[in-house]
Design goal:
The protein is mainly alpha-helical. It has two domains: 80 residues, no CATH class; 103 residues, no CATH class. Helix 10 runs parallel beside helix 12 and helix 12 packs parallel to helix 14. It is elongated, with a radius of gyration of 24 Å.
Length: 235
């Protein structure tokens, strides 16, 4: 019985891997065990409809394989990309998605874009295009950009210029951008006083924890920067 059972498992696994296995059979195999579902999710001939179902699996490894599969529907890829950004980035179909939709960076879910922007291999062009999103809808995207050491000065300069007293959210981002090492250069001492002076220039409360947390993140990244005078004339 043991040998027969093991033989059955091997046979099922081979079926799940085989790109010639009929779709109906792949679905049957995926419903048998979690292990087989993981294998089916990797099958390059698995139908988009089946991969969509597997994308809702409670099993993390199955969902991870779904994101790596080029046949996975775009909406599923972009949703699961927040959980598995490296797999999405490495998926060969991503370049085709950009050809089909040049505005993909501007339109993809913010949660997914945030995780992609954190990757060491994220292209600079993606950061530039991410800065075109609506800050009030996608604050997390802008926050990620001002925390990253890879963000180019051109993007930071754009953020600095969008701060104004009536928009507290914009001010917080502009404030962080103005102190970013890629915008202002490096500073080894006196940054606390500089930060508080700059916060006052932006009419932000130095005791506001949400604002102070921005500087804590700058410290974590080890790039406190010198104070630059504000470019804004307040009413």
């Amino acid at each position: 019985m043991t040998n027969s059972s093991e033989f059955g498992k091997v046979k099922h696994s081979q079926e799940a891997k085989c790109e010639n296995t009929p779709q109906a059979r792949l679905e049957e195999l995926a419903n048998m065990t979690v292990e087989l579902a993981r294998v089916v999710a990797q099958n390059l001939n698995a139908a988009p409809e089946l991969l969509q179902k597997l994308g809702n699996s409670k099993d993390k490894e199955t969902r991870q394989s779904v994101v790596s599969n080029p046949n996975t529907p775009t909406n599923v890829l972009l949703k699961l990309g927040a959980e598995f950004p490296q797999e999405l980035f490495n998926n060969s179909v991503l370049s085709l998605l950009f050809l089909e939709n040049p505005n993909l960076i501007e339109e993809m879910p913010a949660a997914t874009l945030v995780e992609l922007l954190k990757l060491e291999t994220v292209p600079e062009d993606w950061m530039v295009r991410a800065a075109n999103r609506n800050i009030h809808n996608d604050y997390s995207v802008f926050e990620t950009l001002v925390k990253s050491l890879k963000t180019p000065a051109s993007v930071l300069s754009k953020f600095v210029q969008m701060g104004y007293p009536a928009a507290r959210v914009s001010d917080s981002i502009a404030l962080s951008a103005e102190m970013h090492v890629n915008y202002a250069g490096e500073m080894t001492e006196g940054w606390e006083e500089a930060a508080k002076d700059l916060m006052l220039n932006y009419q932000l409360d130095c005791n506001d924890n949400s604002v102070l947390s921005l500087f804590e993140r700058l410290l974590y990244l080890n790039h406190p920067a010198p104070l630059l005078q504000s470019y804004f004339n307040y009413i």
